[in-house]
Specification:
With 209 residues, this protein is an all-alpha fold. It has seven helices and no strands. It has a domain of 104 residues: Cytochrome c-like domain (Cytochrome Bc1 Complex, Chain D, domain 2). The protein is elongated. The relative contact order is 0.12.
Length: 209
Amino acid sequence: MIGARRLAIVFASLIAVCIAACQPGDQPGAEYMPDMARGPAYKAFAPNQATRNGITLQRPVPGTIARGYHPFHYTRGDAEGERAGRELTNPFHPTSQVLEKGKALYETYCLVCHGEQGKGDGPIATKIPPPPSYKSERLMGFLPGRIFHVVTLGSNKMPSYAAQLSPDDRWLIITYVRDALQGMPEAAPGSPDPVPAAPAPAPGSGGSP
């Protein structure tokens, strides 16, 4: 008799638990011993007793770099551009696939000012101070890292393209410009900016032949 009564009590308790766990509508049912299966969720700006300062959203620790972010430790100016030319290395080689991608990007972002052949004769070049030709002595002396510096920070009338082009896309364009438009060989890592040859003296100017 006592055993049956205990069995009935246990059975009734189980039924009560099942009924309590089945709530109508969108209300969650009661759980018994969730065993940390689901932790409490905090909103970003809600108070949080689990942190030392009581704030849920914490500042990154000093030196943290966001995933996909490429630090760029240079500022504007020719001296910084020359330093970038010495220190930055193009990660791409002028293969057919790289040049094809670089050409597509160049035609999308650069051709409008620099022109199809990089002569500074793009469709809107007459409406703004036209950019110099890639074949000019000054630009022929730019290493890939210095061109990357210009594309990243801008120069004179040219704005920065860091928001439009990822670092890899900038390097692809630079590879295409140097190989297809300038006919330049791959630059050795860390080599200094080449010094452009001095222009030949004009006839009759008294210079040596």
